[in-house]
Each structure stands twice: as structure tokens, then as C-alpha cells.
Design a protein that fits this description.
- The complex is a heterodimer.
- By secondary structure, chain A is α/β, with parallel strands linked by helices.
- Chain A is built from twelve helices and ten strands.
- In chain A, helix 4 packs across helix 11.
- The termini of chain A are far apart.
- The mean pLDDT of chain A is 88.
- By secondary structure, chain B is an all-alpha fold.
- Chain B folds into two domains: 258 residues, MetI-like fold (Orthogonal Bundle); 256 residues, MetI-like (MetI-like fold), CATH 1.10.3720.
- Classes of the chains: A alpha/beta, B mainly alpha.
- Chains A and B meet through helix 1, strand 1, helix 2, strand 2 and helix 3 of A and helix 13, helix 17, helix 20, helix 23 and helix 26 of B.
Chain lengths: 342, 531
């Protein structure tokens, strides 16, 4: 027996390695699966995907983004895999990336029956992406500030010189909002706004979360952040409040950032992919995401949500075309890099 | 014939797994639509930011190398050559940070000193802000990486001290005190170890991604990862990786010219030889107290802060519930990876030891080059090479992770095998050959059993490094196959600090339990030199 031990051992290793590869491929054929790349934070998205798995019996395989990749790692993986798609569905945490994928020919059209009650401003007219559960770009303000800012133009007010902070405009929803301002105001006015930010000594943090922490700690008076950052700090009992900016007549409104779900072109499992998309676009999913710590605003009317959140119908929304914002976002990258001194 | 085929096979595997992805990445970075172009490199050299990154990377690597060498070598002498009490326990404890993904140590310091940290109420907000600025930057990165890589000079010093012929020191001691003997005999003899450890620490720090990324200090590996991951710019990512590859190559040329023979001459003491011990006498209490303080500061306090932060049993249950599958995958992939690494390392070590081919030195350099190359570079290369429909059996399965482990860590198992094989007299193999045993039979029935301690050590080192890997796995893992270190990273975005701390503690346990069990085996009770 001892004589054959090395042979047995080496066979076992070869078998386990081959088995590892084989099991993965075989598993895909026998068990219904769906592969989803997710840029929404794992801590919020995973429970939803687990619910889907539990309800349908379809096994979900996911790749999540890291904070370090600024939530664009999975999108870039989709681009890298254009000629060899591995994913069926992309769950983006904002529609701009979904637009980029559409423009690069990586997504396929699918109009989900659950998308019909979602306002048309938050979905692609051809069905290349559909929005759900949104964040609003709000001002988080420390409660010690007596006269609260109510517009993003407060960043330029000398009263708050050196007392306001914003996240790095090269990444995430801050880039999207700045690109949205460029489409709304035109290049000249938007660039002037950006230069005036510098003049008024607006501080730049690494992320919206850090900005919210700075305001909560009293280091700065206010910051433009995502609504989930603000609601989270309020739920933690931090001395902050949130203000939906530019809500008065004649003002530009509040920039809304919905999640977006995309069917990947050439998806290995198109049927299960569509089931997952339908599930994500359901009012039930929106309600779960509203009550979760991410505190996202449902886009379906009449969905249950926590009292500290405003329904989408009560918010004056910034009117932008997300496709134009996506194009503008790429266009202004060199300007933003030079604005940051890179 | 059998031997030649096997060793050529080993070389081919190393080239396909390790070198081909890097070459493929390099070639693709200089071609656009079939035409040769250096545009990505022009962009790189033309940007002022690159010089800032180079300066940051060099400063960080130089500071960490200086601190680890200045403190690690005396510590190694203390734990390897004196009558310091509980030397083995101290050595084991000092090594712990090296066994973990470096960012775990960074997380633990943040849990302790951050704005919401355990010490925040005691320190007050002003001091916490100052410390936060210190932690998130060059000083914090230097301190964390110092504690992570300190074990390298300590272990190498201890290992080399064990190979010094005691007669040399005995002769010197008859005419001089220990101070002079250490300065004029011992330190010159272990000088290759000091240089080797400095080189390793420099390269590992230079290629480190997790800690500077977590502590937001802009260095080259972070830039390369960001260019790939956040901007999806393969060409720019490759270009950003090339200075790191060039510096790694330069360091290896240095190692090849000045160190290699010195490190390969590592031999165990002759039977019955007694090592000379330095008695600390009146300095003992002071030395013990200061060493304990250092241990507390860089190992125990961060570990304790993680344990305290993780809270109670409920958090651990939640952690297991959220990441149990990732833990199982981590342990399984690390175990399979370690087994493959031991086998590949054994044959490559054999090839290098007997200098089977003229290119033995090149093969050794290749494994070392891949080890020193930042994981992000290897990860990007693997994606470049294997992301095709025909190779989905690799790209879309955990085999891609295993290939990453083999590419990156074969140098370790190979070097352990070289040292272990040096202890086996060639007469053993020759005797078996005389009886007509084939080469493969000689390997399986004579050499492998005699080298079993080395193989076990190689497996353990392969397991630890595979388990702690983040940089390669994070880039290449297929959907549904994330490992625990990767899951900790992805959960860091808005995950609760208690959960992250609990997951870090679980990862530490997954690393230390097998390491402790294996080190307790009777096989490891005797004195061992692995390096």
C-alpha cells in the first residue's frame, strides 16, 4: 500500500484540481444559475440577491466591487469581457455606468414588466437599463449651523469660505453630479462654478462617506453627499441634518441617482437574468432597500419607506438626460484631473 | 530521459504560468490596431504625477527597510543567540503579522486610533484628528508595514546565526568580549542575511497594495490597480506597472551578483556542535521589558483591538453566516494551492540545486522576479492571457486563482526545497540509481521522504501566503468564488466595523490554527533551517 501512496496522492491532487474546474462548469449546466456583477455595496446588495435565490431556487453568483476600485471595477471587468461575457446582469449603483455600457455595445435591451410604473426619466427609452431605488444628492449639515444652506451655490458663499467640503470629483456620484451640471449649465458656467469652488477654499475629501463624517465631527459645516450617507449619520445619532438642495421655484432641483440594472449582451443565462432583473425592479425590492441602511428612495409610487425619507414625488428633481451626462462625464475627465492638480 | 522531461516540464509550467502573462501584457501594451506604439508610456513619463508616485514608493520602501533592518537584526540576535527567556514563543508572536494580509494590521490600527476607534474617547477629538492625519499617510503606512515585515530580518538573522560555525566565535571570544565578536565575526558572517532581508523588505514594500490603498497613500501599485480597476485602461495599467517590474529586475540583478551564493551556502551545524549563547546577565530584565513592550505595541495591541472591536458571539455568528462559504473556499484554495506549490517548488528546487540545466539561474531568477512583482501586475497579466472563450475552463473557474498563487509564490517553496535538498547527501540518490531505480522512483521513494520536513514547511508557507493573498485574487476571482480576504475588502464599503473586525479575527484563526498544528508535529521539533 505504502508503495502506491505517492501515486494515490498525486492522483488525488490532479483530480481535485480538475474537479475544481469541472465542478464549476458542470454546475452551470445542471443547476439554474445567474451571474451578476454588482457595484452597489455588497453589504446592501447581497441580502437582496439572497432573497432572490431563496424565492426562485436560482443560484446567484456575484462579483462585488471594492471601495478601492471606486465602484467601477465590475463595470471595467464587463468591458474587459466584452468578447467573452461571463456575467448575465449588471447591477450598477448609478445609471451613468449603464449608459457607458450601452454606448460600448455591452448591454442588451430588455423591458421588464416591473419597469412600467417607474418614471420615464429614470430608465432608458430602449430598455438598455432601468433605474430603481435611488439616492438623492443632498446637503448634510451640522446641527450647530444656524442658517442652513439650501442650494449647492452655498459652496460659493463667502460665509462658508473654508467651511465646506465635497468628495473627490474624479470619482463616483460627485463626478456624475458635476457632469450633470455641465449638461445643465453649459461648459462655461460649470467651469466657472468649479473654479469658484477653489476660490472659496472648498475642501476635497476622498469619498462621500468621509465628507459626511467630517461634517458629523464638526470639522466642516456642510457637504454635498448621497442621501444614504446623510440618513445613516442621522440614524447613528450624529448631530447632522439633511437638506434637499435647490427646491425653490427657479432653482435647478436635486440630482437623483437611481440604481440601474442591465442585461449583458451575450449573457450565458438570459432567462434567469431576466428573472433577476424583474425581481430587482419590483416594489418589494425597493421597499427593502428603503428600510436598509442604504436608505434608498423607491421610484415606484406608494412603496413603504421610513419616515425620515422623502418620497420621490415630494422632491424637485434636477432634469437631466443621463445619456448626455454619461458622455459629458468622459469629456470632462481631463478638466477634472487638472482641477485636482493631477 | 525521464528526469530531463520532468524538469523541462517544470520549467515550461513556470514560464506558461508566470512569464507568459507578463509578456503578453507587455506586448499588448505596445500595440494598437496592429501597429506598434509607445503612447501609453509617453503618457506615463509625461505626467508629473508619476514622479510623485515614484518618490512616494521609494520613500515608503526605504523607510520600512531601514526601520525593519535596524530593529529586526538586533531582535534576531536577541532571539537567536542569547539566553532571553521564552525565545520561541516571542519569535512565534513576532511572526504573526507576516502571516496575515497586511491590510488586517492596518484595519486593527484604525479600529484602535480612528475617529470611532477604541481609544478615541480617551484621546479626545483634537488628538484623534492629529493621529488620524498621521495614520492616513506616510507615517501610518511606514509603521504598519514595519510591523508586518519586521519578522523577515528577524527570521533570516536567526536562521543564519544557526549556521555559524561555533569554533570561529569560540576562538574570538578567547581574546575579546561579545561586543567585538558580534561586530567583527558574527555580523560579517550573517551579512548576506541582512542584505537579503533588506532587499526582500524593500521589494515587498515597493509592491504592497493593500496597506497604502487602505491608508490612502499614493504609491505605484495603487496607481496601477486604479488604472485597471477604476479607469479600465489596460495599457496605462501596464505602463504604470513597468517601473515596478524594472525596479524588481534591478534588485534581482543585485541579488544575483552579490547575494545568491551566500544564501545558498546555508548549511546546518555539524552533529554535536554546540551553538554559543550570549548571557544577558544584568541587562536581562531591561531587555525583556523593552522587547515585551515592542511585542505589545506591534503585535498584541492591534490583535486585541480587533478582538475587542469585534464584540461578542453574535457578531461572530453573523460573520460566519455572511462569509462562511468564503472561508471554506479560502481554506480549500489555499490548501490546494499549497499542495501544488510544494510540488512545483520541489521540482524547481531540485533543478536549481543540482543545476540540471545551464539556465538554472534564470529559472531561479524568474521565480524570484514573479514573487517580487506586485500581485496586481500578475493579476492583470493573467486576465490578459486567459480571458478568451477557449480558455474559460481556466478563466471562469478557480483555476485562475490557483495559477496566480503558483506564479507568485513558487519562489518561496522552491527556495525551501533548495535548502532542504542541500541536506540530502547525493550518495543516497546515486545508490538507488545503482540498483536500477528510475529517476521518478528515486524522487518519490528516496528524495521526497528524506525531504519531507522541507516539503511540509513548503506546504505551510504556501498555505499561509495563498490564504493571505488579496491583490491577485481580488482582480481575477470568478463570480461566486470570492475568498475571505477579498470578501473583507468588499464588505469594507459601508460594512459594520464590528463585522469587519470579526472577519479579520476569523481569518487570523484560519491562518494560525494550521500553522500552529503543523509546527507542533514531531517532525518540526528538531532544529530546522528553511531559508
Amino acid at each position: 500500500m505504502r508503495k502506491y501512496m505517492p501515486l494515490l496522492l498525486s492522483s488525488l491532487i490532479v483530480a481535485s484540481v480538475l474537479g475544481l474546474s469541472g465542478a464549476c462548469t458542470r454546475g452551470q449546466k445542471t443547476v439554474k444559475t445567474v451571474t451578476v456583477y454588482v457595484s452597489e455595496d455588497q453589504v446592501f446588495s447581497e441580502p437582496i440577491l439572497k432573497d432572490f435565490q431563496k424565492q426562485t431556487g436560482i443560484k446567484v453568483k456575484a462579483v462585488y466591487d471594492t471601495e478601492e476600485a471606486k465602484s467601477t471595477g465590475t463595470m471595467n471587468r464587463l468591458i474587459a469581457e466584452k468578447n467573452n461575457p461571463q456575467a448575465d446582469v449588471y447591477w450598477a449603483n448609478e445609471p451613468i455606468r449603464a449608459e457607458v455600457l450601452k454606448q460600448k455595445g455591452i448591454s442588451a435591451a430588455y423591458v421588464s414588466p416591473n419597469a412600467k410604473d417607474i418614471p420615464s426619466a429614470f430608465k432608458d427609452p430602449q430598455g438598455y437599463w432601468t433605474g430603481f431605488s435611488a439616492r438623492a444628492r443632498v446637503l448634510i449639515v451640522n446641527t450647530k449651523v444656524k442658517q442652513k444652506p439650501n442650494s449647492i451655490s452655498a459652496y460659493l458663499d463667502p460665509r462658508w469660505k473654508g467651511k465646506a467640503v465635497m468628495a473627490n470629483p474624479l470619482f463616483g456620484t460627485t463626478t456624475s453630479e458635476i457632469a450633470a451640471l455641465f449638461t445643465l449649465w453649459g461648459d462655461q458656467q460649470a467651469k466657472a462654478f468649479m473654479m469658484a469652488l477653489k476660490k472659496n477654499k472648498v475642501a476635497v475629501s476622498t469619498s462621500n462617506g468621509e465628507s459626511a463624517d467630517f461634517v458629523a465631527a464638526g470639522q466642516y459645516d456642510f457637504s454635498l453627499v448621497d442621501s444614504d450617507d446623510g440618513v445613516n449619520r442621522m440614524r447613528q445619532g450624529k448631530p447632522v441634518t439633511i437638506v434637499y438642495p435647490d427646491q425653490q421655484p427657479g432653482q435647478i432641483g436635486c440630482f437623483i441617482v437611481p440604481n440601474a440594472v442591465v442585461l449583458v449582451k451575450g449573457a450565458p443565462h438570459p432567462q434567469t437574468a431576466k428573472k433577476l432583473i424583474d425581481f430587482l425592479l419590483s416594489p418589494q425590492t425597493e421597499s427593502k432597500l428603503a428600510f436598509a441602511d442604504c436608505a434608498q428612495i423607491p421610484l415606484h409610487a406608494g412603496v413603504k419607506m421610513p419616515p425620515e425619507m422623502k418620497p420621490i414625488s415630494a422632491i424637485k428633481v434636477m432634469k437631466v438626460n443621463y445619456a448626455e451626462v454619461a458622455k459629458k462625464m468622459i469629456e470632462i475627465q481631463p478638466f477634472l484631473k487638472s482641477w485636482m492638480g493631477l | 530521459m525521464q528526469k530531463r522531461a520532468f524538469l523541462i516540464g517544470t520549467t515550461a509550467i513556470l514560464i506558461v504560468i508566470g512569464l507568459l502573462p507578463v509578456i503578453s501584457m507587455l506586448v499588448k501594451s505596445v500595440f494598437q490596431n496592429g501597429h506598434f506604439t509607445l503612447s501609453a508610456y509617453h503618457g506615463l513619463l509625461g505626467s508629473a504625477r508619476q514622479w510623485v508616485l515614484i518618490k512616494h514608493s521609494f520613500t515608503l520602501a526605504a523607510l520600512v527597510t531601514a526601520f525593519t533592518t535596524v530593529i529586526g537584526v538586533p531582535l534576531g540576535i536577541l532571539l537567536g543567540k542569547t539566553d532571553f527567556p521564552l525565545r520561541k514563543l516571542f519569535l512565534f508572536l513576532f511572526v504573526i503579522p507576516l502571516l496575515l494580509p497586511p491590510y488586517v494590521t492596518a484595519v486593527s490600527w484604525f479600529d484602535l486610533l480612528g475617529r470611532e476607534g477604541l481609544l478615541a474617547p480617551l484621546l479626545g477629538s483634537t488628538l484623534t484628528q492629529h493621529i488620524g492625519r498621521w495614520l492616513f499617510g506616510l507615517p501610518g503606512c511606514t509603521f504598519v508595514l514595519f510591523s508586518v515585515f519586521l519578522p523577515i530580518p528577524v527570521i533570516l538573522t536567526v536562521a543564519f546565526l544557526h549556521t555559524i560555525n561555533p569554533r570561529l566565535e569560540e576562538a574570538a571570544r578567547s581574546a575579546a568580549g561579545w561586543g567585538r565578536v558580534l561586530k567583527e565575526i558574527t555580523l560579517p558572517l550573517i551579512f548576506p542575511a541582512i542584505l537579503l532581508s533588506a532587499l526582500l523588505v524593500f521589494l515587498l514594500t515597493f509592491g504592497e497594495f493593500g496597506v497604502p490603498n487602505y491608508l490612502r497613500y499614493a504609491v505605484y501599485p495603487v496607481e496601477s490597480f486604479t488604472r485597471f480597476s477604476a479607469f479600465y485602461n489596460f495599457k496605462a495599467a501596464t505602463a504604470a506597472a513597468m517601473p515596478m517590474a524594472a525596479i524588481t529586475l534591478l534588485a534581482l540583478i543585485f541579488e544575483s551578483a552579490f547575494l545568491r551564493e551566500g544564501t545558498y551556502q546555508l548549511q546546518p551545524l555539524p552533529e554535536g556542535a554546540q551553538r554559543m549563547k550570549i548571557h544577558l546577565y544584568r541587562f536581562r530584565s531591561g531587555v525583556v521589558i523593552s522587547t515585551t513592550l515592542l511585542l505589545l505595541m506591534i503585535v498584541i495591541v492591534p490583535l486585541l483591538s480587533l478582538i475587542i472591536k469585534s464584540g461578542g458571539f453574535a457578531v461572530y455568528l453573523q460573520a460566519i453566516n455572511k462569509a462562511g462559504e468564503s472561508l471554506i473556499r479560502s481554506v480549500s484554495y489555499a490548501a490546494i494551492g499549497a499542495t501544488l506549490l510544494s510540488i512545483l517548488g520541489f521540482f524547481s528546487g531540485y533543478l536549481i540545486r543540482i543545476r540540471a540545466f545551464k539556465f538554472w539561474r534564470s529559472l531561479d531568477s524568474l521565480t524570484l522576479f514573479l514573487f517580487a512583482l506586485p500581485g496586481t501586475v500578475i493579476g492583470i497579466g493573467l486576465i490578459r492571457l486567459w480571458n478568451t472563450p477557449r480558455t474559460n475552463f481556466i478563466y471562469a473557474t478557480p483555476l485562475i486563482i490557483l495559477l496566480g498563487y503558483l506564479a507568485k509564490y513558487t519562489a518561496l517553496t522552491s527556495r525551501i526545497s533548495v535548502t532542504q535538498l542541500a541536506h540530502i547527501p547525493s550518495s543516497m540518490e546515486e545508490a538507488a540509481q545503482m540498483t536500477g531505480a528510475s529517476w521518478l522512483r528515486r524522487m518519490i521513494f528516496i528524495i521526497a521522504p528524506l525531504a519531507k520536513r522541507g516539503l511540509m514547511a513548503a506546504w505551510l508557507v504556501g498555505y499561509i501566503f495563498s490564504l493571505r493573498d488579496t491583490s491577485i485574487t481580488m482582480l481575477v476571482y470568478p463570480a461566486g468564488h470570492d475568498t475571505l480576504p477579498v470578501r473583507i475588502f468588499t464588505l469594507m464599503a459601508n460594512g459594520s466595523p464590528e463585522l469587519i473586525a470579526a472577519l479579520c479575527v476569523i481569518l487570523i484563526a484560519a491562518t494560525l490554527v494550521p500553522a500552529t498544528l503543523i509546527s507542533l508535529l514531531p517532525l518540526f521539533k528538531r532544529q530546522e533551517v528553511w531559508l
